[in-house]
Amino acid sequence: MNSDDELFMRRAIALAAAGVGRTGENPSVGCVLVRDGRVIAEAATGEGGRPHAEEQALAQAGAAAAGTTAYVTLEPCATRSSGGASCSELLAKSAVARVVVACGDPSKYAAGQGAARLAAAGVVHETGLLADEARAALYTAYRPAS
Question: Strands 98-103 and 124-127: what pairing?
Answer without folding.
Answer: parallel
